[in-house]
Amino acid sequence: MMQKLRGPSVKDLAAEYRLTAEAESESKRLASLTRNRVRAPSKRRAPSRRRAGSILSASEAVVARPAAAAPDASSSSASENNVSLLAQATQAAASRQQSVADQERAADNARRQSNEAFRQSLQATRQNIKSMYRSAITRTVMDKHINRLVQCKGKRRVYVQLVEPCLASLNQGDTFVLDGPDRTVWVWSGTKSNRMESVKGFAIALIFKNHEYASKATIKKIDRFSDKDDLAEFLKILPGEGEIAPEESGGDDHEAEQRFKTNWSLERLDFAENDSSDPKCTRVNENTSLKMKMLESKHMYILDCQNEFYVWFGIDSSETHKAAALEFAERVFAERYPDAAAATAADEDYWKKCVRVAEGAEAILFREKFSDWPDMANQKIVRPRFTKRSPAAPSSQTPKVERKFDVTTILEPKRPEVEFFTDGLDEEHLMKIWIIKGVDWSEKRQRFSSFVRTDLPHKDYGILYSECCYLIMYKYLKQDPQLAWSESGGRGRAERRVLYYWQGKNASKQLTGSCALIATQLFDELKSSFFIQQQHASQERHDRQFLRLFRDGRLIVKNGDYFASEKNSEGKTNVFHVSGHHDDTVHAMESSRGASSLVSIDCSVISTPTKVFVWNGKLSSNTKRQVALTVAERLANRAGSGFRVGLREEGDSEEEATTSSSSSSSSSSAPKSVIQVQEGEENDAFWSALDTSDPSSVEYASAAKLHLNEPPSGSLPRLFHVTQRTGIFELDEIFDFTQASMNVPGTNDPFLVLCWDCIYVWKKAMCPTNKVQWALSVAEELADALQAKQGSSERLSVQSIKSRSEPVEFKALFHAWDEPATRKWGDPASAIPRLATAASIGNVVSAAANSPRAMNSSVPSAAASASSASTPASAVDSSSIPLAARFKLRPVSARSTPPKSPRASPEVKKPVWARNPTPASALSVESSAVVSTAPSGRAAPVAAVTAQPSAELISPSAALSEDELPSFSYAMLSGPPSGWDPAVDPTRRHFHLSDAEFETVLKMDKAKFRSLPRWKQTQLKKDFALF
Q1: SS3 for 948?
Q2: Cα distance between residue 576 and residue 23, in whole Å
Q3: Element containing residue 219 per DSSP (H, E)
């Protein structure tokens, strides 16, 4: 009986389906692992993804075979078959995945090794390029060291040249730089070498260190103060024996500089077009220094410096001619220096050879031959251009466009807005002024040891002296709506204070510094109790707010010292110029120009011992006339200061503040008469007050000279400063200018002054020419722009003026123009004003030497002894100290000396140049307060003395020649002045030495000393304590 075939049961089918699902999930997991490995940061392609898909397809094909295709077997055998196939497929997939991972790991290792090899090769290439570049710039041989010896010689300009590295090349008069072994650079300075050569030698050594050894070399400097071991080590490097040659073997420095200019030649090689034959040599420099502009990029040059020979190729020179030029240069070198050419052929390391130099990679010694080549001592090497830029290629840099100043921007003044905290007119505003006074006078040092502030009398408020310093504290009320009624004393008004420290233009540095220190101390004391601010003000540099505090004629600036004002003002005539840029800044300032200080657009006040004249210019404003009248009434003792008293400092009592006004106002002198004079209506009394006998000869800024028929507008004149701070020339306008505005310290810039009829270009003696030319061109453009703007047919003229040569109409544009001092030392006429500054009449006789010792002597004169019995000694104010002694011989008016101790003074010998003193008739005593001789025999000081010019006065430089001066010992001449003989000339102490002692001390005779430059003579005198 046939057995019936039976298919798989349901249980078998379920088990087979479960195994198939597990195989599929395992295949997907393997595929995902492969994809994740492929998506690594290296971003490589993943071939395992396709392989995993093929394996999955094969396993599915094996497992999913239809049941009908199965062999005729039992269900258990079929299941085992399927499981074995699935296991084989899984094992094959795992082995394939492992092989893919191994391949990827091998590829990573190979790639890493390739990158490391490339990095190492790149680093080696960079090192080779760097060494090749350093070789091209500095040295021709880099594989081994070559000793080089460089000589630095010259005085005004130090020249550098290569010399043979041997002991015979050295001399005591120059500086040498040796590039020795072991990365050591030696700088050897001879005992007679100058400072410029030593500095240049160290700069060359620094260049060698930074540019050839990458800052890894050592610099050793050897001079006369160095250790002997270092000198022995230095001399051991150089071949040769014997002593170092003296200074004379090196020759004179000045002659060497001229020899270098003459013998060093720069020759241009000119080739014919399409011809490589020998070029034509044309010398570029003719007995002149070499300049960088002589080298053109399109040519080739030969630089022959005798000890050095270079052939230079420009970057734009012809490539076809370079080989011919090099061959021609070598032939020229062999013809001119056959010994060096033969030595170079035998030994490539010979010190003198023909060196090829390319543009942008010049050797250091080549650069030093040019006077204007930039210094490389503190610069880094700039990589040169190794390839030429094509002319057709567009430049990547933006072309530089030169900016031009636009004159239309200054046609109208652009005054900055200023907020004033007060106008100075409120009755509740109070002021207090202190003056800085010196105490503890030192006879030995001839100066004060300290300064203090003292209250200024109320009658002197507003009168400031140019040789003094003041502290001015001003109290005002400011609107503040946030304050309550009780806090401010009135609704919305708060108390404020401002502290000014004012410094006169003729005050000493010690006084101005002490004033600033005292002002700071006072500010620190008051800032905790009041709302106070501190500001600085100086003569001729007032700000507008400061002048508003003294408006309506309450500010008068006088010349001289406050403590000697009464003595100096007796019998003298003072001229005050009343001017100002605004109606609220008009004030009076004393002028030293006399009648020439009159200006038609301003007013002047002339104060004499008996009268006060008010001169009103034709074109002066009503404000100036009113201020001039107020100033005249105050100078005539007919009016007070105009300030309210009542401002108290911390610690002052109420009585002290309220009684200062009455006590000071009661001590006034007798009033003078005030006379008003209009321009053109002057009488003889007016001109005699100005010490003018012929009024027609007086030259002042009249309306005709100023070319004015009416008062000028409020914006003119205007002052502009020519500056170059931003790289281009510009004009900076200065508002409310004075004469001091043009005296900018440290600069010689020109200034441009615009007025109604002319444009002035003012320049100093050392003003740069390019700035002056630019200022003149801008002035012409400004004149054209103003003419076009006004539509006028007349054009402003442009005039260039020099300092100390200003015309009267230019001086009239400034307030109280002060003439600079032009007196020179040694001029007999200039010695007279210095004698007038002596402390006593005895000093007038013996002060011609202008020495500190002569300034302190007190020899009684005929004028003093003639009137010694008329006035007792107590008539002189002994508290006043001579300002000339206080302020280091500053030219001031005479005053009394401080009291001396009651001790008999020895007889003072007259210097040899004062053997013909000024007679008593040449001295005029202006005050009757002459003091009698003191009981001790010392001549007491007088109140005021002036000296008249005398033809018999002999100046120190004209008295005796240098050979006629008496001889003294070096020990006395180098000691303190107190031990000098009266016949010693302080300015020529060194010539008081005998010929033998002069040569012993200064190491030279007097003839050679006179041939030295002035600066070197001064340095020698300082070194030997004879200056």
Answers
A1: coil
A2: 119
A3: strand 218-222
Spatial distance between the Cα atoms of 226 and 220, rounded to a whole number of angstroms: 10
Two structure tokens written together for 798: 């442009």
Sign of the C-alpha dihedral computed for residues 581, 583, 584 and 588 taken in this order: positive
**Three-state DSSP class for 985?**
coil
Other C-beta atoms closer than 10 Å to the C-beta of 393 total: 7
Spatial distance between the Cα atoms of 132 and 437, rounded to a whole number of angstroms: 74
Q: What is the pTM of this model?
A: 0.48
Question: Each residue of 23-45: pLDDT tens digit?
Answer: 667 666 666 665 554 444 444 44
Q: Considering just the CA atoms, what is the radius of gyration of the chain in Å? A: 48
DSSP code at position 278: P
Sheet bearing 184-189, strands edge to edge: 159-163, 148-153, 175-180, 184-189, 218-222
- The single-letter code of the amino acid at 596 is S
What angle, 0 to 180 degrees and rounded to 10, lies between the N-to-C axes of helices 319-336 and 338-346? 110
Q: What is the pLDDT of residue 780?
A: 93
From edge to edge, which strands make up the β-sheet containing 718-723?
730-734, 718-723, 751-754, 758-763, 797-802
**CA–CA distances in Å: residue 143 to residues 131, 146, 279, 349, 357:** 10, 10, 34, 11, 19
Residue found by looking up tokens 């390019």 in the block? 770
Dist CA 642 CA 462 (whole Å): 9
**What's the CA gap between 831 and 889, in Å, rounded?**
13
In angstroms, rounded to a whole number, what is the distance separating the alpha carbons of residues 738 and 501?
19
pLDDT at residue number 645: 53
Nearest to residue 775, comparing CAs of 796, 794, 749? Answer: 749
Query: Biggest alpha carbon distance in the chain?
Result: 185
| Preceding amide of 717 cis, omega within 30 | yes
Rounded CA-CA distance 954/935 in Å is 33
Tokens representing residue 934 in the block: 């003191």
Do 690 and 701 meet the contact criterion of CB atoms below 8 Å apart?
A: no
- Look up residue 140 and give its two tokens: 């021709």
**Could you read off the pLDDT of 534-544 as tens digits, one per residue?**
999 998 888 88
Q: Are 590 and 539 in contact (CB under 8 A)?
A: no
Please say whether the dihedral angle defined by the alpha carbons of residues 273, 276, 277 and 281, taken in this order, is positive or negative. Answer: positive
Sequence-distant (6+) residues with CB within 8 A of 848 are 831, 835, 854, 911, 913, 914, 917, 953, 954, 955, 956
Query: Of the candidates 420, 542, 405, which has an alpha carbon nearest to the alpha carbon of residue 478?
Result: 420
Measured CA to CA, the distance from residue 742 to residue 761 in angstroms comes to 12
